[in-house]
Design goal:
2 copies of one chain form a homodimer. Chain A is mostly helical. Chain A has helices at about 1-35, 40-50, 60-65, 70-80, 100-115, 115-130, 135-165, and strands spanning about 55, 85-90, 95-100. Helices cover about 75% and strands about 5% of the residues of chain A.
Chain lengths: ~170, ~170
DNA sequence: ACATTGGTTCGTTTTTTGCCGAACCAAAAA
DNA sequence: TTTTTGGTTCGGCAAAAAACGAACCAATGT
């Protein structure tokens, strides 16, 4: 009886807490989705970010997300391959506990910003290709785009380099 | 006969040039796809960027892409709504000539970089949420991520502000 | 007035994405 | 040795995204 009541209270507490976290995971998940991920990976990353403890085993993740084993498995493996998630183990416990790999996360974010180079290259190539164009007015406008793009690109590059230097 | 030969030569020339441009459009298209666009919009933007003249009518675009009228129509309208494409007209010619709106393109690129704020906010919120966590080691690692994220975010913000100031 | 041009609209097809379930497997426990 | 645990793999399916085609329309040309 007492045990039952206690379990019930725990469940109620759990539930409200879980709901709160659920909401957070949901909204953070959407933000992550918008940076080009599918819903489930977004939710897993969100969950591992705000979960206390910050590591969870396979079935905890699956239970929280209410997703299938296969989905959780493949998604975790993708995230691990990407370096955003890793796992720890505890001796005498066969489970793997998945967690955010903050170093990998940082690298991924860094990598994103380095993408500035790609667009900068592209747009520079365009101007190179158009150098003998009859439409210098357009070229001049394009140059403005390239100027901005290089300006940002160089700035980001420098910032990252400085950061790396300071944190080595 | 002469006319025929000339047409043939033109066609051959055209073809090689078109192929060259085709390749470029294709690869630039992929880059643009990777920033979250579908293939056709990517190709249209690419085409208008490197085409000489830098404006093309509806049927030129359609013919070059070998896409359906409907696809071209809706895509052009989307791009115009986004501000990346606009059109010009010539008197005595009913056609619209579509072209890149460099100002709109610049704004779109700018907007992309401003997205840095979103991830920075999210990750800051995570730390706020975890402030009483038992896992200070993880929190410390997260702080590193946040530091980088804010650092880049502030840098980008400042760069854009400076750019806008200098180009007003 | 009729035909043509320069598109637009909308219902349909095609392709891709995201996720699931069931069967499967290796390591550990019983 | 058999069972259980902690996953993995693969075929399939439903929904969403992308592209299409045919019918349509307004403005211009004849």
């Amino acid at each position: 009886m007492f045990a039952c009541k206690s379990a019930k209270m725990a469940s109620v507490l759990m539930k409200s807490k879980t709901n709160h976290i659920s909401e957070k995971v949901e909204e953070m998940g959407i933000i992550i989705e918008q940076m080009g991920y599918a819903p489930v990976p977004g939710r897993i990353v969100s969950y591992l970010l705000i979960s206390e403890p910050p590591y969870r085993d396979f079935y905890e993740i699956q239970g929280f997300l209410k997703a299938s084993k296969s989905t959780v498995s493949t998604t975790l493996n993708q995230l691990m391959q990407q370096g955003v998630v890793s796992y720890i183990t505890f001796s005498g416990d066969r489970k793997r506990y998945f967690q955010i790999n903050t170093k990998g996360l940082l690298d991924t974010i860094k990598q994103q910003y380095k993408q500035a180079r790609v667009i900068n290259n592209m747009v520079s190539e365009v101007l190179e290709h158009r150098k003998n164009s009859e439409f210098q007015r357009f070229n001049k406008e394009l140059k403005e785009v390239i100027n901005f793009s290089s300006y940002i690109h160089n700035g980001i590059e420098k910032m990252i380099k400085d950061w790396d230097k300071a944190h080595r």
